[in-house]
Amino acid sequence: MQLRGAFGKIQCGIDRRQSGRDQKSRRQRTFQEGDGKNRCESSRIRSGEQSHGRRRNQKKLGLPLIVRPAFTLGGTGGGIAYTEETFEEVVSKGLKASPISQVLLEESVLGWKEFELEVMRDLADNVVIICSIENIDPMGVHTGDSITVAPQQTLSDKEYQNLRDMSIAIIREIGVETGGSNIQFAVNPANGDVIVIEMNPRVSRSSALASKSDRISDCKDRRSSFHRLYVRRN
C-alpha cells in the first residue's frame, strides 16, 4: 500500500504509522508492568521448552497456578494447577489448545474478592465513575457466572477511593479519550492488596447492569440520559 501511494492519499505516512505502533506498544507495556505492585506475576511457556524450565517458572510463581493458552476463545484449554503432579498435565493441554503453542502462567488470586468499576471519560478529560460492582462469588468463578451487586457493599471508603483513583489513572494512561471502560480488580480480603485483573476499553456486559443501577445509560444514548439526570436533579 505504501508503494501504491495509498498512505499518502490519506496523509498517513510511515512515520505516523510507526508513531501509532510505538504509542500502542508503550500503553501495553504500561498496563502490563504498572508499578510492579498491582499486577499478577506471570511467565510465558512455549512448546519445546524443556521440563526443567517449566518447573523453574512454576517454583517462581508458586501454586496454585493459572494456565492460560494464547489465542483461544472463552479460556478453552486453560486450567488451574494445584499440585506439581498436575502442573505438566495442565500445561501440555494448554499448549495443544493454543494455535501458536504458547501458554501464560499466572500467579493465582483464587479466593480474592472481585470488583468492577464502570468509568467514562470525555474530551475535556472529565472522568466519572458510573458505578461500582461487586461479585458475590470470589475470584475463580467467571464473572459471567457470578451473581453481582451494584453498588459494591464490602469495601471501606479508603479501599473504594483507592480503586477509583487507580481506575482514573488507568483510563487516562491507556488513552481512552471518550466513552466508557470496564476495569476489574481483585482485592485480598486478608490484607487489602489490590491486583488489576483486566480493562475492557469499551462497553461490556457489566455496562448494562451499571446503566440500570445508576439510571445512566452508558450503552445507548448518553447525551439524553445525562440530560434527564440533570433535569431530575434541578
Number of helices: 7
Portion in helices: 25-40%
The neighbouring-strand order within the major sheet is 7-6-5-8-9
Largest sheet: 5 strands, antiparallel
Give the percentage of residues in beta strands.
15-25%
As for the CATH topology of the largest domain, it is D-amino Acid Aminotransferase, Chain A, domain 1
Supply the CATH superfamily name of the largest domain.
ATP-grasp fold, B domain
Order of helices and strands: HHEHEEHEEEEHEEHH
When the domains are counted, the total is: 2
Radius of gyration: 21 Å
**Structural category:** alpha+beta
Query: What general form does the structure show?
Result: elongated
Q: How widely separated are the two ends?
A: 55 Å
Q: Identify the CATH class of the largest domain.
A: Alpha Beta
Residue-averaged pLDDT, rounded? 77
CATH architecture of the largest domain: 2-Layer Sandwich
Which regions are unreliable across 5 or more consecutive residues at pLDDT < 50?
Answer: 12-22, 221-234
Number-wise, the strands total 9
GO cellular component, one term: cytoplasm
Domain ATP-grasp: 29-225
EC number: 6.3.4.16
Protein name: carbamoyl-phosphate synthase (ammonia)
